[in-house]
């Protein structure tokens, strides 16, 4: 048995024996559009994982991880999804900030921030997007000024996932007043449970509030909490986005496959599968899912090199569009029943929630339009789009 197979078998056995008792009811809870579900219970589960050494498995051992190989990390995420284990609450710290600090942080920053991520004692969110700087992130206007031993942050972030449940936020802010675009930005670690921070949940189409507005009005963070050199935050921020395209996407695809299989089962039960157009769309969805997996495996070469390159945008645009179309297919398979709420006042079915929330897939983590520009300019080498 190979090391990967042994690792996979060990984690599968652990999940089987631990996702029981008080944690058994958490199977399938949480996830996109359902992050409000059993948050406290999922946090307790993840802290249990930490106590057993099953968080941050891909991190080097000296930082609290298991030093798992790339193949072992893939096995971890696949087995977690196959077990229908609850959606992770600490994934932004574990998958985005942690690898960023390991790559760019100071020894002091790693010592301060990595252990609480491993133990799931501090939760993180990502402070990138603003009302006028969403896909065009270089248009950031949130500013930070160095005053004595602190950075003082003023501005607004929006679409900040799980900010209302988070303790810290990694914020891209403009620290050089005369700078424009990619220049003069810094990557700051900002505490949220302090004066000067106002978090306002945004009610979404699903009726839930995974996203938030975050207002900084003179919020302070220690001067040492800048990752990389001041003014070089763009490089650090782009590396974080690269880590976001990492191995966890393989686990995501297990969830996609489960959703597709459920759509097929529904089509068979209600007779929609007899419609040749529906059958054709189901076949295309199956082919698309296989393509997503093959492309993700190809992109792992970039992960092995340190972080995915711009080619990872191909994977993002493909899975986001595929998942949005799966939501549309699910509603068409439901037929007229898909127009009826499950209950008062706004109780949605799983299919309705899939349809509504998957509309955002092609926007968050880089909109389809921006991904196409990246592919055109950085992968295909086409002339850059004219910008004002």
From TrEMBL:
<dbReference type="Pfam" id="PF00441">
    <property type="entry name" value="Acyl-CoA_dh_1"/>
</dbReference>
<protein>
    <submittedName>
        <fullName>Acyl-CoA dehydrogenase</fullName>
    </submittedName>
</protein>
<dbReference type="InterPro" id="IPR009075">
    <property type="entry name" value="AcylCo_DH/oxidase_C"/>
</dbReference>
<dbReference type="InterPro" id="IPR013786">
    <property type="entry name" value="AcylCoA_DH/ox_N"/>
</dbReference>
<keyword id="KW-0285">Flavoprotein</keyword>
<dbReference type="GO" id="GO:0050660">
    <property type="term" value="F:flavin adenine dinucleotide binding"/>
</dbReference>
<dbReference type="Pfam" id="PF02770">
    <property type="entry name" value="Acyl-CoA_dh_M"/>
</dbReference>
<dbReference type="Pfam" id="PF02771">
    <property type="entry name" value="Acyl-CoA_dh_N"/>
</dbReference>
<feature type="domain" description="Acyl-CoA dehydrogenase/oxidase N-terminal">
    <location>
        <begin position="5"/>
        <end position="120"/>
    </location>
</feature>
<keyword id="KW-0560">Oxidoreductase</keyword>
<dbReference type="InterPro" id="IPR046373">
    <property type="entry name" value="Acyl-CoA_Oxase/DH_mid-dom_sf"/>
</dbReference>
<dbReference type="InterPro" id="IPR036250">
    <property type="entry name" value="AcylCo_DH-like_C"/>
</dbReference>
<dbReference type="GO" id="GO:0005886">
    <property type="term" value="C:plasma membrane"/>
</dbReference>
<comment type="similarity">
    <text>Belongs to the acyl-CoA dehydrogenase family.</text>
</comment>
<feature type="domain" description="Acyl-CoA oxidase/dehydrogenase middle">
    <location>
        <begin position="125"/>
        <end position="217"/>
    </location>
</feature>
<dbReference type="InterPro" id="IPR009100">
    <property type="entry name" value="AcylCoA_DH/oxidase_NM_dom_sf"/>
</dbReference>
<dbReference type="GO" id="GO:0016627">
    <property type="term" value="F:oxidoreductase activity, acting on the CH-CH group of donors"/>
</dbReference>
<dbReference type="InterPro" id="IPR037069">
    <property type="entry name" value="AcylCoA_DH/ox_N_sf"/>
</dbReference>
<feature type="domain" description="Acyl-CoA dehydrogenase/oxidase C-terminal">
    <location>
        <begin position="231"/>
        <end position="380"/>
    </location>
</feature>
<dbReference type="InterPro" id="IPR052161">
    <property type="entry name" value="Mycobact_Acyl-CoA_DH"/>
</dbReference>
<dbReference type="InterPro" id="IPR006091">
    <property type="entry name" value="Acyl-CoA_Oxase/DH_mid-dom"/>
</dbReference>
<keyword id="KW-0274">FAD</keyword>
